[in-house]
Recover the amino acids of this structure.
C-alpha cells in the first residue's frame, strides 16, 4: 500500500463552461483525519465524486489508495468506504441483514462474513436489536451502524459526507471518538462537515472556495496564519471572498 | 409583556413514540425564540401543532390569543410557516411560486414588496428559474420569501439552517434580525447549538421534553460543576486517559479542547497535570473555562432509552 491515501495534481472538472473543481492539488497521508470544508456550491461534492470513482475528471491526475481515478475507478470503488448523512441502510431489514447484505456486496463470504457480522454487532452494541428492523433504531445508532458497515471490508480510506448531521451533541462526540479509533487503526478518514468545531478534530483541514483549495493546514496553523481564534472564523474569512454565486 | 404563544401541558404520541411530553411555555410578542435540539427531539411535532396542522393528545396551545384546535381557521392567515423539508413547487419558477403564495393569502407581491425586498431582491436575477433548480441556500431564501409575502404576525421556521454552510447560516440569522426589527415575532428551531446565541430566548428540547428555557447568556449559569478545558496534540489518548482518571465525571471533545468535569467539583489542576504527565500525556494545557450551551445541553440530556 502506498504511503499516500490520496494524491491529486491539478485535478479539474468542468461542466460546459462552468469549472466546478479548479486545478486542486493535495495529498492525504495514510491514517490521517482530513477535513474537507467549503461553502455550499464550492465544489466539494464534485471533488468527492471524482475521488470515489463516480465521476471522470476533465483534466489533472488523482490516485486514491494508489489507484488511478481514470483507469481504475472500479478498483477504487471496491477499496474505499463511503458513508453520507443520507446513509443507505435498508430500513426494512434488521441490522444483521444489513451487515450481511453489505458484507456480501464487498465480497465477504461464509465463515468470514458470519464472524465479521458478530464482531460488528458487538462493537456497535446492537446485541439486543439484531432482530429488530433498522427503522425502529434511534438515529444515532443507525449512524454508528452505517459507519461500521462502511468499513466492513477494511478499506484503506473511508469517505464521510456530513456524517453527523442532526444528531444530538453526545452522539456526535461518540461518533468522532469512533473516527479517532478507526484512524488509530491506520484507516484514512476523509470527512466533510458543516459543524466548524468538528474541523478542529481533524489532523489537517482544507477549505474550498470557488472550486479551488484556498487553504490547507493543521487547524492550529490555519488559525495562526489567518490570525483567527477558531476554524469558523477562518472559514468565514475565506468563504466571504467567494465570487461564485450559489445560484 | 404580551404572550403570543401559550402552551400548557402539551403531549402528543405517535403509537408508542412519545413525541412531546407535558410541554408548557410562553413566547412573547416580537421575540426571536429558538428551539434547540437534535433530530427526534419533538421540534417539528410542536411546530405542526402551533401551525394548526396537528391536534395535541393532551393539553392546550394558543397562538395570537386563539386556540389552535377550535380557532385554526383564524390562526392560519396570520402565520408564516417554513417547513423543514422544501415544500415549494419545484416545477414553478421563483416568481410563480411567489405569485402563488401571495394569491393564496389574498395579496400580491407588490403589496408587501418592502417587507420581502431584502431577501427577495437577491433572488430576482433568477426569477424565471425553476425552484427545483436552485441551490440549497437560494431555496431557503425563496421559502422564507414565500412565508413572508402575506406579512404574517408570527413566523415559524422549522430548521431553516440545516445543511447550510456556516456563512449562509450567519446571513440567514442576520435576515431574521431585520425581520424582528420590522415587528414580526419569530420562532425557529435548529440542531446547531451555537445558533442559540442569535435568539432572545431559547428552549433546549430533547426526546419530547423541554430541558431548560432561558436567555442564551443565562442558560449556562445553572451548569453544576466547574468546567476545565484541556489541550494536547494527542487528543485521542488525552480523552482515554481522562476517562481512566479515578475522579473523572464527564469527558467530551470540544473543538481544539477536551472539556472535563471532576466528581469532586473544583480541583487542583497540578494534580491532574501530574497524573497525565505520568501517563504519557506530556505538558497538557489545563485551564478552568466557562461552559457553553452545548455543555449545558449535554449535562441535561437523559440517557437514551433503548426499549425499541
Amino acid at each position: 500500500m502506498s504511503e499516500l491515501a490520496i494524491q491529486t495534481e491539478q485535478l479539474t472538472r468542468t461542466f460546459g463552461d462552468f469549472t466546478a473543481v479548479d486545478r486542486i492539488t493535495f495529498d492525504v497521508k495514510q491514517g490521517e483525519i482530513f477535513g474537507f470544508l467549503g461553502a455550499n456550491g464550492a465544489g466539494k461534492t464534485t471533488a468527492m465524486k471524482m475521488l470515489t470513482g463516480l465521476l471522470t475528471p476533465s483534466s489533472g491526475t488523482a490516485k486514491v489508495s494508489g489507484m488511478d481515478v481514470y483507469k481504475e475507478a472500479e478498483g477504487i470503488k471496491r477499496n474505499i468506504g463511503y458513508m453520507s448523512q443520507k446513509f443507505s441502510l435498508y430500513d426494512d431489514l434488521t441490522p444483521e441483514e444489513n451487515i450481511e447484505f453489505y458484507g456480501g456486496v464487498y465480497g465477504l463470504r461464509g465463515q468470514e462474513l458470519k464472524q465479521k457480522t458478530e464482531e460488528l454487532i458487538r462493537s456497535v452494541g446492537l446485541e439486543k436489536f439484531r432482530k429488530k428492523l433498522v427503522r425502529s433504531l434511534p438515529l444515532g445508532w443507525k449512524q454508528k451502524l452505517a459507519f461500521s458497515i462502511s468499513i466492513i471490508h477494511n478499506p484503506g480510506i473511508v469517505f464521510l459526507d456530513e456524517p453527523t448531521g442532526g444528531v444530538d451533541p453526545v452522539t456526535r462526540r461518540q461518533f468522532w471518538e469512533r473516527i479517532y479509533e478507526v484512524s488509530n487503526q491506520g484507516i484514512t478518514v476523509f470527512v466533510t462537515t458543516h459543524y466548524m468545531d468538528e474541523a478542529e478534530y481533524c489532523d489537517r483541514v482544507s477549505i474550498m472556495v470557488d472550486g479551488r483549495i484556498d487553504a490547507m493546514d493543521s487547524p492550529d496553523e490555519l488559525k495562526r496564519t489567518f490570525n483567527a481564534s477558531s476554524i469558523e472564523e477562518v472559514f468565514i474569512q475565506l468563504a466571504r471572498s467567494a465570487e461564485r454565486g450559489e445560484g | 409583556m404580551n404572550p403570543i404563544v401559550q402552551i400548557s401541558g402539551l403531549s402528543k404520541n405517535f403509537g408508542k413514540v412519545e413525541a412531546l411530553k407535558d410541554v408548557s411555555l410562553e413566547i412573547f410578542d416580537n421575540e426571536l425564540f429558538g428551539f434547540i435540539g437534535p433530530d427526534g427531539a419533538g421540534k417539528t411535532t410542536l411546530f405542526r401543532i402551533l401551525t394548526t396542522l396537528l391536534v395535541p393528545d393532551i393539553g392546550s396551545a394558543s397562538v395570537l390569543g386563539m386556540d389552535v384546535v377550535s380557532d385554526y381557521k383564524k390562526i392560519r392567515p396570520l402565520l408564516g410557516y417554513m417547513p423543514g423539508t422544501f415544500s415549494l413547487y419545484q416545477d414553478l419558477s421563483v416568481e410563480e411560486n411567489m405569485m402563488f403564495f401571495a394569491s393564496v393569502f389574498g395579496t400580491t407581491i407588490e403589496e408587501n414588496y418592502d417587507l420581502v425586498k431584502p431577501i427577495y431582491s437577491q433572488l430576482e436575477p433568477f426569477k424565471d428559474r425553476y425552484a427545483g433548480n436552485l441551490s440549497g441556500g437560494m431555496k431557503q431564501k425563496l421559502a422564507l420569501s414565500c412565508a413572508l409575502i402575506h406579512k404574517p404576525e408570527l413566523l415559524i421556521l422549522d430548521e431553516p439552517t440545516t445543511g447550510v454552510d456556516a456563512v449562509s447560516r450567519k446571513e440567514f440569522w442576520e435576515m431574521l434580525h431585520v425581520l424582528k426589527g420590522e415587528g414580526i415575532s419569530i420562532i425557529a428551531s435548529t440542531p446547531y447549538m451555537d445558533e442559540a446565541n442569535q435568539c432572545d430566548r431559547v428552549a433546549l428540547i430533547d426526546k419530547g421534553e423541554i430541558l431548560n428555557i432561558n436567555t442564551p447568556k443565562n442558560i449556562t449559569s445553572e451548569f453544576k460543576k466547574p468546567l476545565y478545558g484541556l489541550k494536547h496534540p494527542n487528543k485521542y489518548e488525552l480523552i482515554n486517559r481522562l476517562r481512566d482518571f479515578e475522579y473523572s465525571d464527564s469527558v467530551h471533545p470540544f473543538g481544539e479542547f477536551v472539556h472535563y468535569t471532576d466528581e469532586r467539583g473544583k480541583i487542583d489542576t497540578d494534580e491532574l497535570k501530574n497524573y497525565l504527565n505520568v501517563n504519557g500525556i506530556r505538558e497538557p494545557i489545563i485551564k478552568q473555562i466557562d461552559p457553553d450551551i452545548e455543555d449545558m445541553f449535554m449535562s441535561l440530556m437523559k440517557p437514551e432509552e433503548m426499549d425499541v
